[in-house]
Specification:
40% of the residues lie in helices and 18% in strands. It has 93 residues and is α/β, with parallel strands linked by helices. It has one domain: Rhodanese-like domain (Oxidized Rhodanese, domain 1, 3-Layer(aba) Sandwich).
Length: 93
């Protein structure tokens, strides 16, 4: 499936950048959960619509979050840079 397919099916978008980075620009509707908070907010994450799409600045941090959540059985994908996710979302609207 393409990123747009996941977005179109209601996937939750989680931006794992710092709050300061997130405030500088983000995907509309994305939730900011910094990478260092993923483990302590896992119960909140489990309640979100899956699959989860993680994004960040380059794709590295979102890759770590994706691997962690997939390891716990939470369906997730690495959307890479937030601008890519933003572009994919814009293609649908």
């Amino acid at each position: 499936m393409e990123l747009t397919d996941y977005i179109n099916h209601g996937a939750s978008i989680i931006d794992v950048r710092t709050p300061g980075e997130f405030m500088g620009g983000s995907v509309t509707g994305a939730i900011n959960i910094p990478l260092n908070e993923i483990t302590e907010r896992i119960e909140e994450i489990k309640k979100m619509q899956t699959p989860l799409i993680f994004c960040c600045l380059s794709g590295a941090r979102s890759g770590q979050a994706t691997d962690f959540c997939n390891g716990l059985g939470i369906e997730s994908i690495n959307g890479g840079p937030w601008q890519n996710v933003n572009y994919a979302k814009a293609q649908l609207f």
